[in-house]
Specification:
single chain, alpha+beta, Rossmann fold, 6-stranded antiparallel sheet, flat
Length: 953
Amino acid sequence: MRPLRLTMEAFGPYAKRQELDFSRFGDRGLFLIYGDTGAGKTMVFDAIAYALFGRASGGRDVTTLRSDFSPADAPTSVTLDFEHAGRTYSVTRAPQQMLERRRRTQGASALVSRAAVATLTSGEEVLASGTKAVDREVTGLLGLDYNQFRQVTMIAQGAFRELLNADPDAREGVLRKIFGTEELDRLESELAAGARSSAEALARARADFSAAVARVDVQDAELDHDRGLRVLVGERPELDADACVEALGALVEAERGDELDVTAAMGEAKREAQAAHDREREAQEAVGAVRELRAARARLDAARQAESRAAEALAKAAREHDGRHHDLVAREGELARALPRYDELERRRAAVAQARERRRAAQARAEELGARVGGLEERVKDARARIAADEGVEAELARTTSELAASTQLEGRLDAALADAAALAEAEAGLAPAAERVDGAREAEARATAAADQAFSDLVANDAAFVASQLREGEPCPVCGSLAHPRPARPAQSAPDAGALEATRAAQRRAREELERRQNEYLSLRASVRERTRALRACATGLLGPEAVAAAEGAAAKTDEAGSQAGVAEPLRAALAAERGEVAHRTRTLGVRESDLADRLERVRGYQESLKADEADLLEARSDLADASTAATAEAGAEARAEAALDELGGSLEYPSREEATEQLESVRKEVAAVEGALEAARGAHNAAEQDVAAAEVLLDARAKRLEELGASEATVKERLSVLKEATIKAEARQRHLEQALRAAYARREKNEGLLAELSSLAEGLPALEARARSAQVIADVARGRGSGTNHISFERYVLGFYFDQVIICANRRLTVMSDGHFELVRNTEGESRGKGGLSLDVIDYATGKRRPVSSLSGGETFEASLSLALGLSDYAQQQAGGMHLDTVFIDEGFGSLDPESLELVMQVLAELASGDCLVGIISHVEELEKRIDRRIEVSKTLEGSSAQVVVE
């Protein structure tokens, strides 16, 4: 991958748009990214990595890449044009970001979220769209993921200087970050956690078994005579699971026998308690007969007392009847004779009501005529005012009719323009299917080409297979000279002949012709769309004005930036439709206004016609009002005379109405009935009391005879009941005691049976848990380097040692040149503490012939060694990526510690690296490099943000 052009918008420290033309550096040689510390030199590489993979170095969140120096409404994006395998590509990315957008309201703005976008194109062909799709396409295209790209392309001196000088423990951490072996360390931790978990599970199972044994109830067991039960009690550091299960089983069987014995004894006690209870019940019956006898005596006494009270009440009721009955009957006759006079009173009241109604009707007529006069006066006044207010309505109607005609004509022109926009939109919609047909033809052409290439490869493979069939172990290969032949070539499964190869070539040619035809169709359609667009734009300019057309096309451009494929037709159609809506609204408004003005003119003419009629009606209504006022005065006099006659009769009556007089008569009659009823009730109560006395006497005789039948007397029945109760209590106490003993035996047996099942299950699972714990511990020990045969080296450290060896081999090729054959890096696997072997690093000094620690190197020598390690890692990563060729390398800082001679050697190595088809970029602030390298990207730092420019001298 070779960068051609990098464009940064509001990215990192770069506030403004920055365009860096890498093509000016050519396809090989050195170039320098130069500037002060913190100016943004490394951000140039970060922008390239972000454009390709959507990630930033150092684990930085991509949403923070937005420049703090840029305006709030300036979007952040990066575009990289690059060359790979002879083909040019362009990738554009923008992170998720918050941008300020102006509202139509003057001065108002708001923050809106814009989603992350990414596109990858080659020429006019869109290869991928969307962040994940672009990630997959770029990774497949370059054959590298982000981590491999960073290892191969960015030589970061800091990490390898740290790797060179670190102790074995710290070096392990650095190598873990470089080679990404965190998963191996995590695997070791997970295996150790699994071993601990298995050991804990075994310990919990043993603890559960011990706890279950401790819960065994051995109460009343003969421990001294049964040696098997002794395993269940006492202090036991280790339990014999099988012995415990066997002893508990025997104990449960013994408890079942004890439970049967207690059940039999409880049955006998229950029968004895029932007999005692029956005897007590008989005594209780005698006590009840005594209580009933005493209750009968009390009832007789109460009945006699009630009979006495009833006799007194009867005498009182007779006296009250004799005193009030005569007066009430006389009052009843008096009220009945006065009732006919109340009918005359009601007739006079009706006469007053009729006079009042006539007077009110006359007054209402006068008021109605007065209101009519007032209404007519208001109507006359209102009609005169309306006629005066609408004097110019006829001229206004004529103007409105003219404006309506002009608006209707403009509607027609807009409808024609909308029809043109719809036709253009249909043509634009055909562009995407046409492009898809081009893509399909391109894919078919690619498949035909691949088939032709595969046929050719199969022919070549058959030739190689023929050569391989002649190889013999121990004999040199005629191609490479190797004596070993581990993977000789095999013939293709279906080897084509020359005719089949030519057929695939013909299919390839037909596919190319189809691709050209589809491309021509697409170009013809696109030319038609452009011509229609020009015509629609001219028409819209005449109808809407140039500013409105420019705004609509600007909105379409912003939509395209957001990833839409909308053309010009839709925004212009929307603008025309909006204008059409406004004109239609104006037409409807003018139509409504014209109709309203016509109605107003018609109403004015109606007002003039009705004014004359209303003035005549007003004169007539005033005459009628005078007549109605006279009639109302006469009716008021008649009403006064009727009220005087009513007052005269009402003064001579006791009650104001017939209803009240009738109500009083009914009240008197009720009192007569009440006095008579009270006397009858007293007689009935006295008769009932006499009957209760007779019934109580009969009941008392029956209760005395029942007590004699039971053979008891009132004096001895309580003493006998007390003796029988005591016997019953003793029998029931023995029964309860045996029931409690049975429940306790049952509960003990149930508990022990449950524990027997639990102990059996736990004992059955213990062997498997013990085996699992032993196996997990062995595996964890091996992974951590603690088992036999591991040399006390963990699995991760073993893998890191292998990687470290490969990097050192590649690094020494570079160090030999940079140190002029002075130094060679070697890995020290001896002399370290247990478990730490394999990661110590020494250097062989060929000037002295001695081996010494890398910590003894000088500053310049340390830079050479760390740069060699970094280049070694890049070389090894290229080998792991399938031997890919490196087009561009960035080397970050570290040159300031070199003396002139060392700097010269390092520059020779870098010049050698750049002498092939490789472009080497050095990121540094060292002035000496600025003087020596004439192709540069100069980065400047200001208070308003950084800027960068390409310089080629």
